[in-house]
Specification:
Blueprint lengths: L3 E2 L2 E8 L21 E3 L3 H9 L6 E7 L7 E3 L5 H11 L8 E4 L4 H12 L4 H8 L7 E4 L2 H4 L2 E8 L1
Parallel strand pairs: 5-6
Antiparallel strand pairs: 1-2, 2-4, 3-7, 4-8, 6-7
Helix pairs in contact: 3-4
Length: 158
């Protein structure tokens, strides 16, 4: 679960523009947890996301208020279940969750996932290769109802 600060959950989104009104985008490449609006609890990670975009680099900051009526899937750590979920989402297989939260398969980890899919490494080798990676976090809002749990606070240009 996202870390709490004074009763408020703070999330960050890195982009080339300020995102006052988040939207669920269903175009482009398949991502770790499917289509949706991606945020993180790690500001440094959001800055990295912003710096990879063409044009400006902006981090938008949100207050997140969980809603118990939403269908939420949380992966506290990378597990076989997380790996299978990421593989399915990256292959374009949908899911029924409103929000999905957990570690991120960055480009290097995704290369290992592809190796696993192709059979060039074993599942055990995958876990050995990924065990020393820096911590990552992502939370994706996959439904219109889930976006209502976000409140834009501010943004800042890098």
């Amino acid at each position: 679960m996202v870390q709490e600060q004074n009763g408020i959950y703070i999330l960050y989104h890195g982009s080339n523009t300020s995102v006052v009104n988040p939207e669920i985008r269903t175009t482009g490449f398949y991502k770790d947890f499917g289509y949706g609006f991606y945020c993180t609890k790690i500001e440094k990670q959001a800055r990295k996301w912003a710096l990879t975009k063409r044009g400006g680099s902006i981090v938008s900051v949100y207050q997140y208020t969980p809603d118990d009526t939403l269908n939420v899937k949380t992966f506290p750590i990378m597990t076989d279940e997380w790996l299978d979920f990421v593989v399915n989402c990256r292959r374009g297989i949908g899911h029924e969750y409103d929000i999905v939260e957990g570690p991120m398969a960055d480009d290097q980890i995704w290369d290992y996932v592809e190796d696993l899919i192709e059979g060039t490494i074993t599942r055990n080798a995958f876990w050995e290769l990924t065990k020393f990676k820096y911590p990552t976090h992502q939370i994706v809002f996959c439904s219109q109802k889930s976006l209502a749990t976000l409140k834009f606070i501010k943004d800042h240009t890098l």
